[in-house]
UniProtKB/TrEMBL annotation:
This is Beta-xylanase. Its EC number is 3.2.1.8. Keywords: Carbohydrate metabolism, Glycosidase, Hydrolase, Polysaccharide degradation, Signal, Xylan degradation. SMART domains: Glyco_10. Belongs to the glycosyl hydrolase 10 (cellulase F) family. InterPro entries: GH (IPR017853), GH10 (IPR044846), GH10_dom (IPR001000). It holds the Pfam family Glyco_hydro_10. One of its GO terms (biological process) is xylan catabolic process. PANTHER family: BETA-XYLANASE (PTHR31490:SF88), GLYCOSYL HYDROLASE (PTHR31490).
Amino acid sequence: MSHSCDAVYKHRLGTKRLKLVGTDGNPLGNTEVVIKQKKHEFLFGCGEFNSIAYANNELDENGRLKAEDKYKKLFDLFNFVTLPFYWGDFENIKGRPHTQRLKKTAQWLISRGCAVKGHCLCWHSYSAPWLLDMSNSQILSAQLQRIRRESRDFAGLIDIWDLINEVVIMPIYDRYDNGITRICKDVGRIRLVREVFAAAKEANPDAVFLINDFFNTTTDSYDVLIEACLEAGIPIGAIGIQSHMHKGYWGVEKTLKILERFSTFNLPVHFTESTVLSGHHMPQETDDFNDYVPEKWLSTPEGEEQQARETILHYKTLFAHPAVESITWWEFADGQWLGAPSGLLTCENRVKPAYEELHKLIKGKWWTGPEAAISDETGLIEFSGFRGEYELNCHGKKYSFILDKKGGETEIVV
């Protein structure tokens, strides 16, 4: 029993022998089963910061009803959600972090079948304001303590983190004074990255910690930084690439060139912040995205059709590349970051064409089952499909198994 798919996605498939045996240990030959996929191994994600208010019962009745409709759509498409850990919000008052609030949110998302990522533990923007009252050595100590605390406190709930964000510009960031730019300028990029990774791995050795940054077409600064970090022995778990396309879709050629550059490091690549707009684009001459504040930034019918076409091209390009392990949409509904029409839903929760087309891919073309199969005389079924979690139904009872790179054989006692 094998799954057919386009050749460019063959690396996403797994094969496993399923051996059906009875409770007496004898093989169950010529037995009919139905197998269906329950979850992808690939992380199809989105940023959904508003889930914190919902999970903590902070919405009024109308807000809660609207959110329930939104999350039904979210969970029908995605298996991965990013939550915010910006220090200035998470611990605006020193010593009073919002740990329980974020834990409750993570637990709720996990209960709905989503893995959770934290974003981010070290960043110059949105850093804690009280850091400015400290010396540089005290700031560094507080930053490392913060990383150990969150990595340890959320272990088992959040085991994927955007650990350090936008290091390339961190020591030269000049929009406003902040503690993280101060220490990065003082100790240097490489030492700071080394220190934060060491602290994080100490607290949660099994977690995946990313370095995350935006890609600048005019320089190779991010490439050079990663190379230097790896030469210094820093245990980067995955490379995070932001792909905010507020100025227009990158196109397949540019995306492939980026993948070619970063796949040379032989590390998993996560597209951590992907956006394609369904309204007008930001002017090309805009340097800092935060500087563009239009009076209105609306989704349009023409823009939505274009967003759908470009989003599908983006996902197909990334899913076809073996280095990519995750794509995160930023964010699920319009009106979040920068107020841009970058969601897959409008502010009113109307589903855009991009959502519908993505659903056809993720839960259609890139999904396996339900499929019927019959075991041979020895009780074996040779099964192939997209890697992930599966359910086998035999004689009205359900059994779970994992399809991964390892393959091998799984015995199912019926």
